[in-house]
Amino acid sequence: MSDKVRSTKLKFKGEKTKKKRKREDDSEERVGSSNKRKLDDQDPETWVLPENVNELRGPTFIMHPSDPSPISINFNSTTNRVVLSSLDKDKSEDSEPVSLLERVPTDVAQVWVTTRVAGSSTINLRTGTGEGKFLSCDSHGIVSADRDARGPQEEWTPVVLPDGMLAFMNVYEKYLSVDEVAGGSMQLRGDSEEVGFAERFWVKIQHKYKKEANEEEKKRKEGVGAPPKIDEGSTNHIYQAWGAGRLVVSKDDKKELKRARKEGRLAEAMLDRRSKLKSDRFC
């Protein structure tokens, strides 16, 4: 006797048997979960490429694929100047070649700290060494890092390009670029009108900040459906009053309020007079 369990589902003559269909997205889910585990298992200090501008935060390593040697944007704390340094200057003849995307900073002078104002598309780049100066660009395209406070000239708008590289636009809508000057030396400029080879940079951040940005974005998306809770009374006081809730109005508004109060008192007096005349008539 067979131990095979028979199905109790009734079948009718001529009825076609439906084959069980695997979910098409099973493989995608497995790949997605595998990538997530791989991302979570990474060392928080690992240097990775940002995939969008929101991930650009924290310690930042900026490189340019110059020829014959790639360079990094450094800050010399002794001279308080921005310098472009070859990434191959300490390379020995016996060392194996390393691709540009595998490069990581080996000196604190190569590291900048990216900060941003919440809700803003612009960033600030502060030196990771010295007293913490901000990278700035004036209206003539001169790039420097000698300011302790941030302002419009210290704001940069990062633009992620299709190949994963980044361009940086300043407040004058000009782009940061690598420029060759007399003698073959390189310097940073901030007056390029278009994005070409000189205006494209590879940027690396630490994995923990990329993960932090992704978690924030996930929370933001999950909270989109919830209606905002607004207390009109408190909101009006926040944005229209100060000092014990005193309402702030213009001179014209004060005149209108005064006139309205005067008209209101006049109307009340007329009503009182009419009611008094009516009562006297019936007496």
Q: Could you explain how this protein is built, in words?
A:
The protein has about 280 residues and is an alpha+beta fold. The chain has two domains: about 45-220, Trefoil (Acidic Fibroblast Growth Factor, subunit A) (Trefoil), CATH 2.80.10.50; about 235-280. The protein contains four helices and 15 strands. Strands 1, 2, 3, 4, 5, 6 and 13 form a seven-stranded antiparallel sheet that branches. A two-stranded antiparallel ribbon has the order 7-8. Strands 9-10 form a two-stranded antiparallel ribbon. A hairpin with a 4-residue loop joins strand 3 (about 70-75) and strand 4 (about 80-85). The longest helix is centred in the C-terminal third of the chain and has 32 residues, at about 250-280. About 20% of the residues are buried. The model is unreliable at about 225-250 (pLDDT under 50).
Instruction: Report the end-to-end length measured between terminal Cα atoms.
Output: 114 Å
Determine the mean pLDDT: 77
Order of helices and strands: HEEEEEEEEEEEEEHHEEH
DSSP strand content: 25-35%
User: Which class do the helix and strand fractions yield?
Assistant: alpha+beta
The CATH architecture designation of the largest domain is: Trefoil
Overall tally of structural domains: 2
Rough shape?
elongated
**C-alpha Rg (nearest Å):** 33 Å
Question: In this structure, how is the largest beta sheet organized?
Answer: 7 strands, antiparallel
Q: Return the CATH class of the largest domain.
A: Mainly Beta
CATH topological fold name of the largest domain? Trefoil (Acidic Fibroblast Growth Factor, subunit A)
- Low-confidence segments: 225-249
Percent of residues in helices comes to 25-40%
* Number of helices in the DSSP assignment: 4
Number of strands: 15
